[in-house]
Write a structure and sequence with these properties.
14% strand; six-stranded parallel β-sheet; alpha/beta; single chain; disordered C terminus; 275 residues; two-stranded antiparallel ribbon; Undecaprenyl pyrophosphate synthetase
Length: 275
């Protein structure tokens, strides 16, 4: 179900949602907290790894759909720093699935001109996973379409602290000055440097929190929460989230009247619009 901006609940088909979507005003950068694999499996009396396998199929569907729609960057929260606390066998299964995903999806990335990148402490990962991460990065480095960015062994607080350490090292070496530190300059020390500003964060499974994900980048992003578990989140749900995004007024501290005067036609910065 889609909860519309006027409070009505409507069942809309993929085709009806596509008819409402303005592909000229898509968010440039979408991030997704992929949650609910374990619950999806538990609801069916299956082991948790079955949910992760089904979730991997959803990744393929969402990556393909995002690329074809024209989204510039897609960041997926695949494995957090906290996830290392999970049972050893589940962690090993997740690392094996990551390796399998990279092996299977390299061809799809090449066919769709997708560039693959990662954020997080990838040195923490097992050797096989790191090998395939490096391989897929190298073989897609020249692609010019959507950037598929996977967060692995990642935490938002860790990323900000690492950026502060890098800036401090440059400061001590005399390469930068305190007076030159701006938000834009600091963003260049983050793992997401070079990606477009984050416009939309989607979280599945009904949980309504950020869970230490892209804390700096989420400052002005729109948030979209859905009860759908990640294995059930398909292309139709993605389009519904994009339609909802386009119905929001993104003021960035200004009034709607100011934005209307700046843009003239009511188009908002980052793809939203005045309603």
């Amino acid at each position: 179900m889609l909860l519309t901006r006027d409070g009505q609940v409507a069942e809309l088909s993929r085709e009806e949602l596509l008819a409402r979507l303005d592909t000229s005003r898509l968010p440039r950068h979408v991030a997704i907290i992929m949650d609910g694999n374990g619950r999806w499996a538990a609801n069916r009396g299956l082991p948790r790894v079955a949910g992760h396998k089904k979730g991997m199929e959803t990744v393929r569907e969402i990556v393909t759909a995002s690329s074809k729609l024209g989204i510039k960057a897609l960041t997926l929260y695949a494995f957090s720093l906290e996830n290392w606390k999970r049972p050893r066998l589940e962690v090993e299964a997740l690392m094996s699935l990551l390796t399998l995903y990279l092996q299977n999806e390299l061809k799809l990335m090449q066919e769709n001109n997708i560039k693959f990148t990662t954020i997080g402490r990838t040195d923490d990962l097992p050797g096989a996973a790191r090998k395939w991460i490096d391989k897929v990065k190298a073989e897609t480095a020249g692609n010019t379409g959507m950037v598929l960015d996977i967060a692995l062994s990642y935490g938002g607080r860790w990323e900000i602290m690492e950026a502060a350490k890098k800036y401090g090292a440059d400061l001590l070496a005399g390469r930068v000055s305190p007076q030159g530190l701006t938000e834009e300059a600091f963003s260049g020390y983050l793992d997401t440097a070079g990606l477009p500003e984050l416009d939309l964060v989607i979280r599945t499974s009904g949980e309504m929190r950020i869970s230490n994900f892209l804390l700096w980048q989420t400052a002005y992003a729109e948030l979209y929460f859905t009860d759908s578990l990640w294995p059930d989140f398909g292309e139709r749900e993605l389009i519904a989230a994009l339609v909802d995004y386009q119905g929001r007024e993104r003021r960035f501290g200004r009034t709607g009247e100011q934005l209307g005067a700046v843009n003239g036609n009511g188009a908002m910065e980052g793809g939203g619009h005045a309603v």
